[in-house]
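Task: encode each sequence below as structure tokens.

Item 1
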Amino acid sequence: MEPTEPPAKKRTAAKRSVGSADETFDFLAGGGDMGRLMRAKDWAATALGEPETWPQSLRTSVSTCLNCSFPILIWWGPDLVKLYNDAYALILGAKHPSALGARGRDVWPEIWDIIGPMLDRVVSKGEASPADDLLLMLERHGYAEECYFSFSYSPIRAETGGTGGVFCPVIETTARVIGERRLRLQRRLAEQLADLHSVADIGSAAVQCLSEDDDRDFPFVALYQVNEDQTARLAASSGLEPGHSAFPAVLSLVGEADQQWRLSEPADGRRRHIPTEGVLDLPRGPWDRPPTYSVVLPLGTEGEPAIFMIAGLNPSRPPDEMSEFADLLARQISASITNTLAAEAQRKRADELAELDRMKTAFFANVSHEFRTPLTLMLSPLEDALHDERAPLEGAQQERLKTAHRNSLRLLKLVNTLLDFSRIEAGRVQANPVATDLAELTVDLAAGFRSACERAGLRLVVDCPPLPEPAVVDRDMWEKIVLNLLSNAFKFTFEGAIAVQLRLTPDGRAVELLVRDSGVGVPTHEIPRLFERFHRIEGQKSRSFEGSGIGLALVHELVRQHDGTISAESAVGQGTTFTVTIPFGAAVLPAQLIATASSGSALASRAEAYVEEAVRWLPEGVGEAGRMTEYTIGLPRPADADAQAHVLIADDNADMRQYLCRLLEGRWSVEAVGDGQAALEAVRR
């Protein structure tokens, strides 16, 4: 490096006051605060001497530096004296303004072993020396600080031809480098915690992830899980040797044992700063000193967290900044723990509900079996009595037994439905496939409802042409499917027609059953819930408000047993169409698994139960043509009864209405109606 010219004479700082008109110092014009400092500085006391003696190369470089908004540093002369602008002053921190005019070795002694050789190479060889994101541990705020810089050392040619100094544009990249590192850590942490389903696994993965960051931000991490016996167990750790005195395997939360980390103090969802400068043998990570502070963070739910994370903070970054980052990571881990605990609670709840469902299913199965025996013993004597030609019943006695018989059949139908459901739930239902003339069977089933439809004034349209070959179905299940759909259509149709259609799909691989009605229809938002068990549409107009809400759900399950599907289309006031689709053809099942058709002896009794129930939904007095006649259940009132002694009965079950009327016979004048609207009209009359 060429030596600078020795000053010809010394001048006092007073002669170079701010605003001096001396053209010798025009190159120091402008430059903001640093320009004013340079113009006011006593340069005679520095190695550079008075500015009037500075070579033109230095003057030009300083003028460029002062009036640039980018951080610029100039090293000049053999001692590499520092000159810089306002933007670079921010990098110096507490070393500004004393660094102006001082030797570089004196300003940056902590990093001179890194930048000194780089500067020597530029000066001696005249070659530029760049650096990208170079780590420099600067002591500019009272401690060794982790800093990163991108800069370029470029030679400044002196008038004599040698290198007079070094021109250095520089930018601090600390925030970007550390920010990217922490973002990578957060992303990696999220990836590792994504598929974990236990708190222990989450804790171990989190600690492992933090240790993969070269321990720069957290030289050590310890995870303690609090137990019910006022102790905390070391669940996971990184950067710690086993048996470290500050991190015992089991930490008592009572007494002096907890003074160091204070886990027993109320957590209130906030972090705690713990000074650890005096703790012996704490891990240092890549730094030359142990953490000055550690942080204790509760993880999981607030209030009474079961897990605490103790993390040593990077001593080369501001404690508040490190604490905020540790808190951010703790919230990320806590969210994963909270989600896991919620999922565990949900799984536990689901298991409990499944167990309750299994118990309910077993109860229904047992009760259904118990009900069927007494029902059979009730139905058989009733049928014998009703059909006993040797002792025929007459009048009221016969009506009583018919009522008992009808409702016994209805109860048997309900019991059988519950039993079917319990078997399906228990997985004990298995289709018994039979090669069946499906068209003939469907026509026979639909025919059972013809008389009921005629009495209700409805048309029953059956369109079931013969199929090219027998269909493979479980006859018993198919009967329940058809009868339930017909019963449902009859219940919600007051005028028009009910249509039953059987047809092959265009590709011939499936058969479709369509049951269409012109009834009240179903609101659009209710259609997805039609096949839910026990679901009933509130306020829906129907022939009867009785029912368990499991008929369509049972149909859905029975269709699934045939590997088929069922769907519904409906519009309010226009009717509903149910479409059942099941596989068709001999290839559905191997021939050896297809049984021969059994007799349909059970068909008549099952259909009778559905039809009898449907008929009882009709109002009293409905004739064969479907027209309502003037008819009221009325009993004669005794002559001596009070003129106001009139009883009105409203019930949607015909048998119940008749039974109540018989009970009140001879004491009051009785009128019975089938719904609330009719009851209001009767009251007004």
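Item 2
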Amino acid sequence: MKRTFAVLLGCCIAGLAAAQDPSPVDESQLIGVLQSGTSSVREKAAACASLKRVVTARSVPALTALLTDNDLSHSARYVLESLPGSEAEKGLLNALPQTSGSNQVGIVNSLAKRRDPTAVGALSKLLGNSDSAVAVAAAEGLGHIGGPKSLKSLEHALPSGTGVLHEAEVDSLLSCANRLLANGDNSAALKIFRQLYDHEKSDGIALASYRGIILASGSRGIPLMMKAIASGDSPTQGAALELALKMPGPDVTTQLAGLLANAPVPVQISLLQCLGQRGDPSVSAPVAQLVASSDPAVREAAITALGDLGDQSVAVVLAKCAANSTGAERTAARQSLDDLRHGPVTQALMAALSDDSPKVRLEIIRALGDRGDASVAPTILQLARADDDAISSASFQALGTLGGAEQVPDLLQIVVQTTSDDRRSGAAGALGSISQRLESQGAQWDVQSLINAVKTGPVQTRLALLPICSGLTDASVRDALRASMADPSPDVREAAIDALCDTHDSELLPDMLKVACSDPEKRFRTVAIGGCVRLAVREEAVKLPAEKKIEIFKTILDTPLDTAQKRLVLSGLEAVPNDQSLALVTPMLDDKSVRSEAAQAVIHIAGSISKTQSEEAGAALKKVLAMSLNSATRKSAEKAYQRFQ
């Protein structure tokens, strides 16, 4: 029994293997196709493609014979150029003198791709070929292969080459030199780079060769780089500036910084960008000196570089730049103030808060807020109580970012006690930002003090604090909002309804729906309808079943609505694509005030619901197609209608 099972299993495995490879490639058969006098060009090309998978040295004679065929040379080279071994190389080399034109160029390219040094002699002879395309391909091939023999041939041919051939020879010499450089043979590479730099006229070659000279010169390349940067010679200067970022070592950084003072404006800007990217804070002093440059582009580049290089010593410099500049320069100064990370920057900024210039103090407060160091919040809170309205306003903005639960009581006190509308608004704004952050973090804080102020504070206090309630999810907040909506003060009631309609708390959805359906004020109904739509279908944190969403929209539709309110409901129904929403939207096609919006909603819903509801969807879409529509809407409706046919 076991033997029978083993035999059956073996047969299954063999059958599976045969199924996976039903037509194994046979090299002999393919060679026969290539050598056949009756096979077509197409059949031989297909045989070459198949040979690529199984080719051995046996196929070389048959493939080589095709190299002189204008129709099949490419197919044969495709196989030969990747076949390891000397046979393929010999086949390509033997065919080379028997071809011309594009076939010869193709064989040269295949030999170059193989990078076999044995091809160098044959390619060198072609450098003087009367066909410029062949000569150029040979020059490029020698550069690709590289090595001493290729180098010698290219150097020998260079003086007599002209036009595109000369350019190809130069490019190949650069390739050879860069390969020598990569292999650590700096002296040989340096010789080539110097030869090209001394004799070639092109700025591009001058740049590439001088770059090579610097790299191949080792430690002696650094003075060359510095000299080129200082010289003003465009190609060499460009090469040196390109390398300045890559040359390692603090000495290089110091020398680059030493060039700043006397360099022309464009070079100063390039050096500042380079030094900023090198990130060595030891050169921040000479960089900081250029903040006072007469050229605005240099000032901006210096300010930007200080963000990466500077420490506490430049913090006040940057604050003064931000205070006394405009536009891009001010933006750069503020960004660099935020980016400073070397040394005790916060302490330096705090010490400078006594600066006589209010503009500078404003920038320091802004920077402290943006830098996000919560340890300075108590000091910023003191500044928020200052008599200067601008300082107070900036401090409240910073506290919105920096403040925590510890600052809530003081901010509440300011809201309750101040007689200034601006300060009350600023303190309430900071409270709102802090409370939302604490809420998102799940942190413990004194929510009840806020609620007590909302319930019992003066009217102006309640008006300032009620918007904060929309960002909180708490039972006492719900009670405070409900109580405020029943307040005898119209202003308090309005603020409470606005806060209710901005809430993220799904527990307040019934209260919002009640306002949407029955409030005597049209504005409140519209705001509440918008709030219901947002909370039902747009708030990711609120997860309501589709049936509940439909129930909300149906309840609203059962009340008198104006055009704007109907459009809000349609936007909500469109986001609940099912047969129930379709049933609510379809009758609205008869309402001239929202016919266009209803048509769009029908198309969207029908395009998303199951085909099992084809009868209802088809009927609704047919009704849409009977309407007068613009071309885009009609096209969408026709496409949706086709799903149900």
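Check on item 2: The chain has 39 helices and no strands. Residues 1-23 have pLDDT under 50 and may be disordered.
End of task.
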